[in-house]
Amino acid sequence: MDYLPDQLVWEILDRIKKTADRNSVSLTCKRLHKVDSEQRKFIRVGCGLDPATESLNSVCNRFPYLEKVEIIYSGWMSKLGKQLDDQGLRVLSNNCPLLDDLTLSYCTFITDGGLSSLASCSKLSALRLNFSPRITGCGIISLVMGCKKLTVLHLVRCLNVSGVEWLEYLGKLETLEDLCIKNCRAIGEGDLIKLGPTWRKLKQLQFEVDANYRYMKFYDRLAIDRWQKQWIPCSSMLELSLVNCIISPGRGLACVLGKCTNLEKIHLDMCVGLRDADIVCLAHKSKNLRSISLRVPSDFSLPLLMNNPLRLTDESLKALAQSCSLLDSVRLSFSDGEFPSLSSFTLDGILALIQMCPIKELALDHVYSFNDFGMEALRSAKYLEILELVGCQEVTDEGIQLVGQFQQLRVLQLRKCLGITDDGLKPLVGACKLEMLVVEDCPQISERGVQGAAKSVTFRQDLLWMC
Asked: Which residues are in the COI1 F-box domain (predicted)?
C-alpha cells in the first residue's frame, strides 16, 4: 500500500460506498486513515452521538472537508443521552467551513440561537428542518441573512415558524429554487405572496397545510385577495405539490396554476375549491407536463362540499389529454371509499387520457367508475408499464384476465379490490408476463392463487379495513 500512487489510493476508496466498509478500511493503515479523512464529504449521525457535542466535535476534527451533514434523531429516547443542542450547532459551524447541505431531523433541543450560529456558514445552500418545535421565524431570518446562497429550504412540522420577514428576505435574494413547507401551522397560503421576485426562480414548491389545525383568519383572506393584484411569474417551476390548500377562484394559488409554463410534475391533494377551470388553464399552459396526481374529496367527506359542491369532472381530464402530449404518469384518487363520488371523473374522461397520452403509469384509488370496460380499453395503451388499482370494486375477474394482453405491462398492484378472485389471476400463472405482482388486502385472492403469477410476488392479507 505504501508504494501505490496517491491518485490510485483515492480511486480505491472512492469505489467503496458503504460507510461501514469505509470505516473498516480506514483502520487498516495510517495512509488509508488519512486519505479517508480528506475524502469524506458526507456523514449521517443521530442517536449514537453520546455525549452529543463532544462526539460531533471529534467527527468534525476527523473529517475537516465535510460538505453534507445529516443529524437525525428519529426514535430518540431520553435514555439514549442528551440530544444535540445549540452548542453542537456552533461546533458544526466553526469546524465545517465547506458545509453546503445540512439536514436537522427531530432535533428538538435546537433553538433560534443555535440556528443563528449557522449564519457564518457562507457556503450553505441547502437546509432541511424536520420537526424543530423550538425554532421560530427569528431563527430562520437570522440564518438566511447570513447564508445568501441558499437555494434549498425545507421546513416540515416547524410549528412555531411564521412566514413574514424571512419569506420577504428570500424573495429579495432571488436565489431560492426548492421550497418545501409542510404542516407549519403559522404559515398559510397568503404568506407565499411575500416571495415576490423569487417566484420566477423557483423550480420546486411543496406546500402542505395541516388539515387538523386549519382555520381561516380575516387577515388570511386579505392576504389571498392581494394575489389578484400581483403577477406571479412561475416560468421556472418544474414540480408543484399542494396538499390541503384552499384554491380561491382567480387569485392565490390559482394564479400559480395558470402561470407554470414549464411544469413537468404536479400533485394536488385535497385542495378545496379546485375547479375544472384551474386544471384546464394548467393544461393549456403546461405543455411539458409528464406527471399528474389528483386526490380529491368524495361527495360527503368535507362539509364544505354539502353547501358548495366544487368537483373536478371529465372536462379536466379531457383538457389534459388534448394539451399534454407528454403525460405518462397519472394518479387519480378519492379520499373516502365509504362515500364514493358519483359525479366526478367518469370512464369517458379516464379513457381520453389513456387513448391520447403515452401513459406508462396509471394508478386509480377508489375510482368506482373504472370497470371491466376500462380494463378492455387498456389493451390499446401500448406504453403502459405500471398499473395500480386500489378499491376499484367494479373491476372483476373478467377485466383482470385481460392483463396478459397488455403489451408492455410489467408491474401490477391490487389493493382492497373486492371483485377479483384467484380465477382472475390464473392466466398469469406460469406465463412469466409480469416482473412484479403486489396483492394486498383483497379478500377473494389467496396466497396460493398468486404463486407463479409474476417473477416477484408480494402478498398480504389484512381485512380489518372491512370491519
From this structure: 4-41
Residue (of 234, 291, 284) closest to 268 by Cα position: 291
144 occurs within a structural domain? no
Name the DSSP class of 270: S
> Is the pLDDT assigned to residue 216 strictly greater than 50?
no
Q: How many domains does the chain contain in total?
A: 1
Q: The domain spanning residue 6 has which CATH number?
A: 1.20.1280
Place of cell 379516464: 350
In the chain, pLDDT over 90 holds for what percent of residues? 61
Task: Report phi then psi at 207, rounded to 5.
Answer: -135, 120
- Burial pattern 66-94, b for ≥16 Cβ within 10 A else e, equals bbbbebbbeebeeeeeebbbbbbbbbbbe
**What backbone phi and psi angles, to 5 degrees, belong to 223?**
-65, -45
In a domain, 136, yes or no: no
Residue 150 lies inside a defined structural domain of this protein: no
Domain that holds residue 27: 1-39
Query: Residue 214 to residues 189, 225, 455: CA-CA distances in angstroms?
Result: 11, 19, 46
Cell 449557522 identifies what position? 118
* Exposure string over 309-340, b if 16+ CB within 10 A, otherwise e: ebbbebebbbbbbebbeebbbbbbbbbebeeb
β-strand pairing of 101-105 with 265-269:
unpaired
pTM here?
A: 0.89
Residue 78 CB partners (closer than 8 Å, separation 6+): none
pLDDT tens column, 17-74: 787 777 777 777 777 777 777 778 899 998 888 888 999 999 999 899 999 999 999 9
